[in-house]
Design brief:
270 residues, eight-stranded mixed beta sheet, alpha/beta, Glutaconate Coenzyme A-transferase
Length: 270
């Protein structure tokens, strides 16, 4: 889930406009190169994993919260429970089995999620916006499988449609999925088994973190983006890598697969 789902035009490529959704999806798919088992959340994570399966990670095994594992759908699923996920899948299991044996069993390499808010250590909020539980500014769908993915996956990739101080915050309005850093601080419950959020792909650039006490660091910006603007659009004092990189623009081949093969009717690209 993301707080702002509107789209805008970012970049020119071969005479055409590359939208923010296309940019995010392509960089998200690239990040999955070399990964094997991916738990795909709804929205852009679903689109990105499908693109990765057709480009940089053809052997990737996609797992969905609905209980489908090893999915190889012939067409783009409209939801995480779309019947198109079933043909060619390795198995379809009850959700209780998925949560108990797959997610909690630490069989997921990457949990690919969205969120409404994220803090500097990678804790996520997908529950509500505002400081009044009974009367929030916005009430969101909630965790779904996100908290289980945070707890059991080896690492979490996060895609955020908008990089603003409202989405990258010093203090979450609600902690839906606590990072390993926050879980250790709380000293209660079961500690997450994995590294938590290691990659965040936004419309401005890419942030990474790996160690439990490490903050998210800006490690790449998209072409034409000023790193100082990314810092201004972050709700905490964002660290910038000394070896900051500039991302590679989407290729015509990636755009063709995304636009013409995967999502020609703009289910997710809009």
């Amino acid at each position: 889930m993301t707080a702002d789902t509107s789209d805008h035009t970012d970049t020119k490529k071969d005479g055409g406009d590359v939208t923010s959704s296309e940019l995010l999806t392509i960089h998200s798919a690239r990040a999955l190169a070399g990964r094997r088992v991916v738990f795909a959340g709804h929205g852009l994570p679903t689109l990105a994993t499908s693109l990765a399966q057709r480009t940089v990670a053809p052997e990737i095994e996609i797992v969905y919260e609905s209980g489908v594992t090893g999915a190889r759908p012939p067409d783009l699923p409209r939801t995480i429970s779309d019947s198109v996920l079933v043909p060619g899948a390795a198995s379809v299991i009850p959700m209780t089995h998925l949560f108990n044996y797959v997610l909690q069993g630490q069989r997921i390499d990457v949990g690919f999620l969205g969120a409404a808010q994220v803090d500097r250590y990678g804790s996520l909020n997908s529950t509500l916006i505002g400081d009044d539980w009974e009367h929030p500014d916005s009430r969101l769908p909630g965790s779904g499988g996100a908290i289980e993915a945070m707890a059991g996956a080896a690492e979490i990739f996060l895609v955020m449609r908008r990089h603003t101080p409202r989405t990258f915050v010093e203090t979450l309005d609600f902690v839906t999925s606590p990072s390993p850093h926050r879980a250790v601080q709380s000293e209660v419950g079961t500690m997450p088994a994995g590294a938590g959020v290691t990659h965040v792909i936004t419309d401005l650039g890419i942030m990474t973190r790996f160690a439990q006490d490490e903050e998210l660091t800006l490690t790449a910006v998209h072409p034409g983006v000023d790193p100082a603007e990314v810092v201004r659009q972050t709700g905490w004092d964002l660290q910038v890598a000394t070896d900051l990189e500039t991302t590679q623009a989407p290729t015509p081949e990636e755009l063709a697969v995304l636009r013409d093969d995967l999502d020609p009717t703009r289910i997710y690209l809009r």
